[in-house]
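A.,

Following up on our hallway conversation. Structure tokens first:
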């Protein structure tokens, strides 16, 4: 895998520790947001819906993240964590990501 998402946003390499790399997850979540929103004009603490998102785009993001990591992603996870930082943190805490985010 290369170090750039489809939007050209750099994705940092994993550091190799046992848990998921929060920076890696944050970068991958951000890439998905940029892809579906078609802009980068939002902060990592901005609510997805305030940045122009909608429920259909949430489904696209979660499907893409699920496919990337080989994990079934529930939409409610996104709705409970609607910022890049919150979603990345929730993914890092999720048991399924302990092995795949390395």
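Then the amino acids I'd put at each of the 102 positions:
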């Amino acid at each position: 895998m290369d170090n750039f998402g489809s939007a050209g946003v750099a994705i940092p390499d994993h550091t190799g520790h046992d848990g998921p790399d929060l920076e890696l997850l944050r970068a991958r979540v951000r890439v998905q947001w940029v892809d579906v929103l078609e802009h980068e004009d939002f902060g990592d603490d901005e609510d997805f819906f305030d940045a122009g998102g909608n429920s259909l785009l949430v489904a696209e993001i979660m499907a893409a993240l699920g496919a990337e990591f080989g994990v079934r992603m529930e939409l409610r996870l996104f709705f409970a964590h609607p910022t890049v930082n919150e979603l990345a943190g929730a993914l890092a805490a999720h048991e399924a990501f302990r092995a795949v985010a390395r």
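The helical segments are 22-37, 55-69, 75-80, 84-93, 97-100. Curious whether your intuition agrees with the design.

B.
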